[in-house]
Amino acid sequence: MTTQPSQRIAFLGCGSMNESILAGLLAAGLDPALVTATVRRAERAGELRERYGVHARATGDDDGANIAAVLDADVVILGVKPVGIVPLAREIASALKPSAVVLSVAAAVSIAMIEGALREGQAVIRSMPNTPSRLGRGVLSISAGSTAGPELMERARDLLRPAGTVVEIPEHQVDALSAVSGSGPAYAFYLAEAMAAAGIGLGLDAGLSELIARETVAGAGFMLAEEGADAAALRRAVTSPNGTTQSALETFEELGLPHTIAEGARAATARAAEITRELAGPASS
Fold first, then answer.
1. Boundary-marking domain end, from 124, 148, 174
2. What is the pLDDT of residue 4?
């Protein structure tokens, strides 16, 4: 599944996750002429054509758009909402080439659910990306379906690598990974919002406070991205004994911030498992 010159990729659904992967791959040199995307609205299809130069079809105007998109596709990336993944897999099952690989980026939809909707033997890989993939700074997990062997997984890794760091994990760890990396960008944005609000509370101009909070979080992210970076070591380097930063961090500890973050991640994991059960129906109860 390497991005060879003749490889064709179909993105079915182009919400934030699929668009992030699409943007990352195109930025790394993928030929847009080899990409087809399907979305519901004609306006959105036009936007994708203009922004990326890819073929884009609107299912709202063409009931056969998904079928047409996958007929010659070597890789089909499913990126609609979780509730629509299994119906979409059923819709395209008979049109897929036997050699095509189906890659799902949907949360909470298991490999078994997708495989059950496709023809027997169709290769399925489950991935959990995050939105920084559009900048080539994402985290993208890959988990093997029943017919996705080591060679196919390596090819999946090669395909997704331009969008960020690719990690291979067993499927039972996907929800935990999603709670950290999938939801994680929102945690960082939430931190920036809270820092800006704190600055305003201390008397800073709102625009200035938002700017410095945003740039501080982004700058710290760049430091963490340096080779060999260690979050704890970076934190200690900024924290002078008995200084202002130490005072702030001790307050965070006293108020239970690490516990709050851990509980939030656990809540995200539990909700993902709950959604999986809801999508699977009574048989999963």
1. 174
2. 47
